[in-house]
Design brief:
With 378 residues, this protein is an alpha/beta fold. The protein contains 15 helices and 15 strands. It is an enzyme of class 2 (transferase).
Length: 378
């Protein structure tokens, strides 16, 4: 099956779609653009009427809030204040727009802590399942008003990728201000060309392909492709397309080839490994020797203490850590069976010597292969 056949097949068969829309699409110099909100709701309602479950990840609250106060809102407190002002207005606009079509919408505000805690993750999944079962359209945003820096997703592109896993979607559509993904930054290279597809996103050099960001958002094409790379590991495709194109969703689902289609990876990872790697943030790192790197990369082995050369960070057992080779390149991420202080004591030691060094040996492995994701997009 060629790329276009794959694209049309997914668009025809998709039963659950996550749509992410950025601030650069939804807002103008005066704040929230209600015309754009209404046009988006019109298209999403049409898809909804065809039986497609829709989950909307929407930016725009901060930008909407900033335009309603006279003073300048600076730093994280200012951003949180702007979000508090703008979030209710954003939801009110969506509620009114969807109500015209008899569609009920629901607001869901999340922080990273809601998804990295397994119990709360499962509770959120059940909430989404209940809403979608009642044919409600959940509208998701980061809870900017209360999220401290270490609990933030960073941007709604990252959040959208986590929502794809949470609701087990068939497709991610990322509506942005660009026509798609370019082979270079079009703001700096007048010869940059839009890509119709990306067949192997894991091999794409994101740093050189996209180094720009919009002025009103927190992301940029880099974050959109990082999000696409993550969901590709789940076996889910992404469409990056301009949300400024008129009737863009109608045209996409009618077969028009707009935007850039990012194909999924052939060998998908488990949803559990996805949750381990991306719902947490690494608290430290371990550097391993070449033998351990080969064992992990080429043979799918667990990481043993004997292969660890150094440990960085101050973390407890069960923390997510980066696994680095001797050059500092990241091999993957995984959950450490030991704290940083204990790993420093047993690094370079054989597994049978752990009890002699620590006085106990709860695990032979520093990081078990079942709790590890190679080539993680972090």
């Amino acid at each position: 099956m060629d790329v276009n056949e794959h694209r049309q097949s997914v668009l025809k068969s998709a039963r659950r779609v996550v749509v992410k829309v950025g601030s650069a699409v939804l807002t103008n110099s005066e704040g929230l653009d209600l015309r754009v909100v209404n046009r988006l709701a019109d298209q999403l309602a049409a898809l909804h009427d065809k039986g497609v479950d829709i989950v909307l990840v929407s930016s725009g609250a901060v930008a909407a809030g900033r335009g309603l106060v006279a003073g300048e809102l600076k730093g994280l407190p200012g951003r949180q204040a702007a979000s508090a002002i703008g979030q209710s207005r954003l939801m009110h606009a969506y509620d009114e727009a969807f109500e015209r079509y008899g569609v009920v919408s629901a607001q869901i505000l999340l922080t990273r802590d809601d998804l990295r805690n397994r119990t709360r993750f499962l509770n959120a999944r059940n909430t989404f399942a209940s809403l979608l079962g009642q044919r409600v359209i959940p509208i998701v945003n980061e809870n900017d008003t209360v999220a401290v820096q270490e609990l933030k997703f960073g941007d709604n592109d990252s959040l959208a990728s986590l929502v794809v896993n949470l609701v087990q979607a068939d497709l991610l559509i990322n509506l942005t201000s660009a026509a798609g993904v370019y082979d270079a930054n079009p703001d700096r290279d007048p010869h940059a060309k839009a890509l119709k597809s990306i067949e192997n996103i894991a091999c794409l050099d994101l740093d050189t392909t996209c180094d720009g960001k919009t002025t009103v958002g927190t992301g940029g094409m880099y974050s959109k492709l990082m999000s696409a790379r993550r969901v590709a590991q789940l076996g889910i495709p992404t469409l990056v397309v301009s949300g400024k194109e008129r009737f863009v969703l109608d045209r996409i689902f009618s077969g028009e080839e707009l935007g850039t289609w990012v194909l999924p990876e052939e060998h998908k990872i488990s949803r559990r490994k996805f949750w381990i790697a991306y719902n947490n943030t690494p608290d430290g790192s371990v550097t391993v020797d070449p033998g351990a790197a080969r064992a992990v990369l080429e043979h799918g082995k667990s990481l043993l203490p004997a292969g660890i050369r150094s440990v960085e960070g101050d973390f407890e057992s069960g923390a997510l850590v980066k696994i680095l080779d001797e050059s500092g390149d990241m091999i993957g991420v995984g959950l450490s069976n030991y704290s940083a202080s204990d790993l420093q004591k047993v690094q370079g030691h054989r597994s049978e010597d752990i009890s002699k060094v620590l006085g106990h040996c709860n695990y032979e492995e520093a990081i078990h292969r079942d709790n590890m994701l190679i080539d993680a997009a972090v």
